[in-house]
Design a protein that fits this description.
By secondary structure, the chain is mainly alpha-helical. 30% of the residues lie in helices and 3% in strands. The protein has helices at 4-34, 85-96, 159-162, 164-168, 181-189, 192-201, 211-223, 231-236, 246-255, 309-312, 344-353, 385-396, and strands at 42-46, 58-59, 62-63, 282-286. The strands form two sheets. The chain has a two-stranded antiparallel ribbon with strand order 1-4. A two-stranded antiparallel sheet has the order 2-3. It is globular.
């Protein structure tokens, strides 16, 4: 029989093992996964990556209600983390609780505010110690459908693994739990309400208050953030002919035209080509360079923000980032992987120009050249002021106002 000290040590190893595995995967596994496969921006993965995924959102008490229109497939849900009301509610509390940070000053919601479609309106986000992330905080809405979960990391495919990175990551520090793991767990293990909630969410676990279960609960909550109640959805899936304005309808025609070519990266019900869902023949990882930087005349990006190149070392991958979903995009400025584009108008102008300008003041992309630094850039296009306004109207039609105040996603600790 183990003594108490050995027992505590054993429990601590069980609690910490998942995040150690994840951070090791992030640091070491990216090269081997991507180097041979991601030379062309879009990668088709036959089947699923880990072999542990179910075909849908089955909860322990029956099918999960995804609150999506008829005709939209359900997200893929891991077999080892089925959806349940108890788990989602536990995840909601953890998401808004600053006790999940080392110094108790920050929560997940600090960088993902519901009123801003779960972004934070900053170019980059400060962590609990004041250190900023290198990249813009993306919306978590519909993250259950994304085949990869960050701007440029091709390894992080599961929300359960991604949830552990801001908790334990040190480069940069976000929630800052590394080094104070036992103290953070004790905050929840000694709280009667939380211990009851962990036990209800994970009834088969002898020791349910663990970082592995924290990650599973957070992942379940984020997976439940489906949002498809916009004017666009009501028009396309609900048959409401007056749901979209005439300007938005004209903008939609432009968006899906071959002249603008927006839909090549932002297509399908999720408005991103990088998707994964129930019944899909294959999930697609996709990373594109849209010419936002050209520091040396050869396509160089800032050293701390080189995109997929950071993982592959392949010059072809310089500046390649995952196309984000455009759902609720009007609510999520600033834009771009580093938040350096202030408005949607500026985004459209950059694409129309074929990228930002070179140091010499010339358009960098758009000549059709297929070189490692240019392949994948938008070609550029001409548009009138009226067409720009129509495109903006279409972008605004992708806003789901209901998700901004949905009580099932709101802060449970907020004053009524």
């Amino acid at each position: 029989m183990l003594d108490k000290s050995s027992s505590r040590s054993s429990r601590r190893r069980r609690r910490l093992a998942p995040w150690r595995r994840v951070l090791g995967l992030v640091a070491v596994g990216a090269w081997s996964l991507v180097a041979s496969a991601c030379t062309g921006g879009g990668v088709d993965d036959e089947g699923t990556s880990e072999g542990d995924e179910s075909d849908g959102g089955e909860s322990e008490g029956g099918a999960w209600d995804w609150n999506i229109p008829e005709g939209i497939p359900a997200p893929v849900v891991p077999e080892d983390n089925p959806m349940s009301l108890e788990k989602v509610e536990l995840g909601r509390r953890l998401f808004y609780d600053p006790r999940l940070s080392g110094n108790q000053t920050q929560s997940c919601a600090s960088c993902h505010e519901q009123a801003l479609a779960f972004t934070d309106a900053r170019a980059t986000s400060p962590g609990s110690t004041g250190e900023h992330t290198a990249r813009n905080s993306q919306s978590l809405i519909n993250a259950a459908y994304f085949s990869t979960l960050t701007w440029a990391n091709p390894v992080l495919e599961r929300l359960e693994e991604q949830a552990l990175v801001p908790i334990f990551g040190e480069f940069p520090v976000e929630l800052g739990v590394t080094g104070v793991e036992d103290e953070v767990l004790a905050r929840f293990a000694e709280d009667p309400d939380y211990t009851a909630r962990f036990a209800a969410a994970f009834p088969d676990d002898e020791d349910p208050v663990s970082f592995g279960n924290i990650a599973r609960a957070l992942a379940s909550f984020v997976r439940a953030m489906t949002s498809m109640r916009s004017p666009y959805d009501r028009y396309v899936y609900g048959g409401e002919q007056d749901a979209m304005s005439d300007a938005a309808l004209r903008g939609m025609e432009l968006f899906f035209s071959e002249r603008m070519e927006c839909h090549h990266c932002h297509n399908g019900f999720a408005f991103t080509i990088s998707t994964r869902y129930e019944g899909q023949a294959f999930s697609q990882k996709n990373f594109q360079n849209t010419g936002q930087y050209n520091l040396d005349g050869m396509g160089a990006y800032p050293a701390n923000n080189t995109g997929l190149f950071e993982h592959t070392g392949n010059p072809f991958d310089m500046g390649r980032f995952r196309p984000p979903s455009l759902r609720n995009v009007a609510l999520t400025p600033p834009y771009g992987h580093d938040g350096s584009v202030a408005t949607l108008e500026e985004v459209i102008d950059i694409y129309a120009r074929g990228g930002r300008l070179t140091p010499e003041g010339e358009a960098f992309a758009g000549d059709g050249a297929q070189s490692p630094v240019k392949s994948g850039f938008v070609a550029g296009f001409e548009m009138s002021d009226d067409e720009r306004a129509d495109m903006l109207a279409f972008m605004e039609s992708l806003t789901d106002e209901a998700v901004l105040s949905d009580p099932s996603l709101s802060d449970p600790f907020a004053a009524p």
